[in-house]
Structures are given as structure tokens and as C-alpha cells.
């Protein structure tokens, strides 16, 4: 009887120790996983290229999303896709630090004038906050080109269209 009791206790004890090891492994794994992923907000950037002759570009295009005191800069590029072709609508998903917040008050957009006929006719940009569903439309309707009016490769501090 005594022998049986001590056997059970020993078994129970080893089972408890094993459970403890498994639990700490799970906890360790969870905490390292959450440390690796800092909080982000998902945005989507929609870009409409105009339908005028030579409106498309193969230049590299960049955007700043801005709110007072904070700007996030990204290149707009879908790898393995020819973006910014004439008349096309291109979407660019992006994750930005949650510290940026939910509101976009203005954007900068520009390109590096690379490739053949890099002049680009931009109709509009729409910034979509995927977390809140909010959207901001930025109307451009102009060339970003060194050879077409207003002879500039950038539009800075664009405000959303009313
Ligand atoms: Ca691309």
C-alpha cells in the first residue's frame, strides 16, 4: 500500500514537472512571437494613371504619408508587375507603424525620372485605411514630367479633395 502510494506520488510529480516544462516552452514561444511583430496599421494606396498619350511611366515612384509631426516614406512597387501603365489602376498594400495613427492629412508623391519616356500623368491617389475603412482621395490631374507643364517630378503636401 505504502509502495503504491509513493509510486503514484512520484509519477504525479514527474507529470507535474513535465507539464511545467511544456507550459514554459509555450509561454516562451508566445512572448518571442509577440516581440517580433510590432503593431502596425494596414493601408492600401490606389493610384490612377491617366489615359493621355505617354501617360504611363517605368520610373520609380515614391510616396510620403503624412500627419502633423510624422511622415512615412515608401516606394510604390508591386514586384513582378508593370505598374503605372497608361490608363491603369494600381494598388499597393502597405503596413506602417501603429504610432502613425489612423489619420492621413497630406501626401507627397514623386518619381526618379528613370526609364524611357518617364513623364507620368497622374490622375489621382486614394489612401485607404484598411483598419477603419476611411479613404482620402488626392486629385492630381497633371504631369510629373520635366517636359510637360508644370515641369516638376513631384507634388508636395497634397491635401485630400473635399
Ligand atoms: Ca513593379
Notable features of this structure?
four-stranded antiparallel sheet; 8 strands; Lipoxygenase-1; single chain; 2 domains; 1 helix; 162 residues; 40% strand; binds calcium ion; 22% helix; alpha+beta
Structural account:
Helix content is 22%, strand content 40%. It has one helix and eight strands. Strand 6 and strand 7 form a beta hairpin. By secondary structure, the protein is an alpha+beta fold. The radius of gyration is 27 Å and the shape is elongated. Mean pLDDT is 88; it is low at 31-35. It has one helix at residues 2-36; strands spanning 40-49, 61-67, 70-76, 89-97, 106-111, 120-129, 135-144, 154-158. The chain has two domains: 1-37; 40-158, PLAT/LH2 domain (Lipoxygenase-1). Strands 4-1-6-7 form a four-stranded antiparallel beta sheet, with no helix packed on it. It has a four-stranded antiparallel beta sheet with strand order 3-2-5-8, with no helix packed on it. The N and C termini lie far apart (86 Å). Calcium ion is lined by residues 77-78, 81, 83. Residues 77-78, 81, 83 line the site of calcium ion.
CATH topology of the largest domain: Lipoxygenase-1
CATH superfamily of the largest domain: PLAT/LH2 domain
* Derived structural class: alpha+beta
Shape call: elongated
Our Rg estimate from Cα atoms comes to 27 Å
Distance linking N and C termini: 86 Å
How many DSSP H or I helices? 1
Amino acid at each position: 500500500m505504502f509502495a503504491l502510494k509513493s509510486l503514484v506520488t512520484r509519477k504525479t510529480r514527474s507529470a507535474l514537472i513535465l507539464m511545467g516544462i511544456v507550459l514554459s516552452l509555450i509561454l516562451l514561444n508566445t512572448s518571442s512571437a509577440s516581440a517580433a511583430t510590432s503593431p502596425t496599421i494596414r493601408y492600401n494606396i490606389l493610384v490612377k494613371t491617366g489615359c493621355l498619350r505617354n501617360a504611363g511611366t517605368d520610373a520609380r515612384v515614391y510616396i510620403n504619408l503624412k500627419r502633423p509631426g510624422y511622415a512615412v516614406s515608401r516606394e510604390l512597387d508591386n514586384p513582378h508587375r508593370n505598374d503605372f501603365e497608361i490608363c491603369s489602376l494600381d494598388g499597393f498594400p502597405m503596413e506602417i507603424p501603429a504610432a502613425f495613427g489612423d489619420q492621413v492629412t497630406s501626401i507627397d508623391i514623386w518619381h526618379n525620372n528613370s526609364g524611357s519616356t518617364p513623364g507620368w500623368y497622374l490622375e489621382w491617389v486614394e489612401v485607404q485605411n484598411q483598419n477603419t475603412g476611411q479613404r482620402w482621395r488626392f486629385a492630381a490631374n497633371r504631369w510629373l514630367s520635366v517636359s510637360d507643364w508644370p515641369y516638376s517630378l513631384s507634388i508636395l503636401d497634397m491635401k485630400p479633395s473635399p
